[in-house]
Give the backbone structure.
Amino acid sequence: NNKKQVLAFDFGGGSGRAILGSLEDGKIQMKEVYRFSNDPVIINGTMYWDTLRHFFEIKQGIVKAKQEGGFESIGIDTWGVDFGLLDEHGALLESAVHYRDDRTLGMQEEVFKAIPKERVYELTGLQFENFNTIFQLYSLVKKRPWLLEKADKMLLTPDLFNYFLTGEKKAEYTMAATTQLLDAKKKEWSEEILEALQIPKHILPEIVPSGTVIGTLQPAICEELGVDPAKVIAITGHDTQSAVVSVPTQNEDFIFISCGTWSLFGTELQGPVIGEKSLECNVSNEGGYGNTTTLLKNIIGLWLAQESRRQWIREGQEYSFGELEQMAVKAEPFQSFIDPDSPEFVAAGNIPERIREFCRKTGQKVPETIGEIMCCINQSLALKYRYALEQIEACTGKHYPVINMIGGGIQSKLLCQMTAGANGRKVIAGPVEATALGNIAVQLMALGEIKDVKEARQIIADSETTYEYLPQDTEKWDAAYEKFKTFIH
Ligand code: LFR
């Protein structure tokens, strides 16, 4: 049997997985071999990722994958922006801090004192978000300079794990592009920004393209785990960009919504769109596979439902996402709306109560039951997608007849149907396993098994079932949208 198996690690905010993938008869086959929870740890007010445990879980996944037939290569994707700092001996200085930690509060203002906001946007083309690496690092410049003095290298999460596996310190392009320290046109670290913010340039590693084989498993790891020295490939380390690789279309112009904890709404372009309009819309030009740019809006996404669910569990009411969806379907739609991206919804905590407070403040009907809250979340997200659609269309000057929804969140039929209605566009939903498929496809491209992205997308379209949703209740949605827009700040 000469089919090549590759091992994909996909880390999400709540859990991570190890998946074996291979190409068989023109289709990608996947097998999940290991799943683990990902639990941030709060210590003395700082929210950390459990970096050491993450690496422990990677090792567990490797052992399981070996038992399931072995693999030629490993590729890792995670959320964006977060990083670990290494000292000159390559030792990790502290566990990575979570992007939802509040060390970045007020840092945007501080950064813009040192370099104008417009200039940062002009150089990076990135949406301003408190959690971007630029603001995390500046909080260290301002509050913990000694840590930066000790740091020899900063490695973004997938790059950090790749380093633990191989000993090679590199910055993979799609992750580097989430930092807001990258010059979007030159695709190099922006010296102008680094100098203005006194971030030491030497901590930033060499940037490598997505799909670079950066090394092989270190001998000590092979010995410890009893495996052969597989290749380690710096894939599209940013999960969103792995997902974009798997949009099952052959069109050059398409709209995708990657639905997970976040909803990433965007389109793929050959180069950045940076101008007054894009700054005003605060859209991101994020680096994608093959030096592409994805023009996108970050929308808070199903975090609202995930964190609400945790709240209800704390209150002794535990329901699955399927059950929550059923309750939402039974609630009366078009009653109350929130701006999902209002800042009070970012931090962990009692989201249902914050939603009620938003509705109270804006003089709307206050959603009381679980079903009403879930309905409010879904319809508000669908309307925020329309808002993003208008912004993206304004920036590119194009009209997109179809929306491709991908990722775990599309298991909610309600969200897909509401998205079709709110946007007045046909929705094609699938694949659910977008990020893992993209991760696997990039590995197979690096190994020469798949020719290019176009072929990868065709293979993925052939491998996966998609579902169509057509717009319904268009007039009601149009009326709702007019109302919704008044709540966006
Ligand atoms: C999605 C994602 C988004 C990024 C956010 C925080 O998982 O990677 O693209 O903006 O997480 O890093």
User: Anything to note?
Assistant: The mean pLDDT is 97. Residues 175 and 238 are 5 Å apart (CA to CA).
